[in-house]
Design a protein that fits this description.
mainly alpha; two-stranded parallel ribbon; elongated
């Protein structure tokens, strides 16, 4: 949680969100972007079984996006990766979510 909090705060300090006027046109958005101001969102991509940290991340202002593995081990065609993906890194095929 510390890393997520520090990362979010660092981005907010380096790139404050531009003020949102009552009425905004596409020309206003282009002008804001050309001044180096960026709007941003903080998204935590979580596997459906990863529930331990969700409430804390949400409390820090992160949006939680639940996503299953993008590719199941049974779908992998390459023999080497198929035989090694389940023991790869800290979380097997779920490592692919970090890409």
């Amino acid at each position: 949680m510390d890393g997520a909090a520090v990362l979010k705060r660092a981005v907010e300090l380096a790139h404050p969100s531009p003020p949102v006027p009552a009425t905004t046109t596409s020309a206003d958005s282009t002008a804001a972007a050309s001044q180096g101001e960026f709007d941003h969102a903080f998204v935590a991509i979580c596997h459906p079984e990863a529930t331990k940290s969700r409430d804390a991340l949400a409390a820090l202002g992160w949006r939680i996006l639940e996503v299953a593995e993008p590719v199941g081990a049974h779908e992998i065609q390459g023999k080497f990766l198929k035989s090694h993906i389940l023991k790869s890194g800290c979380c097997g095929a779920r490592e692919l979510l970090k890409l």
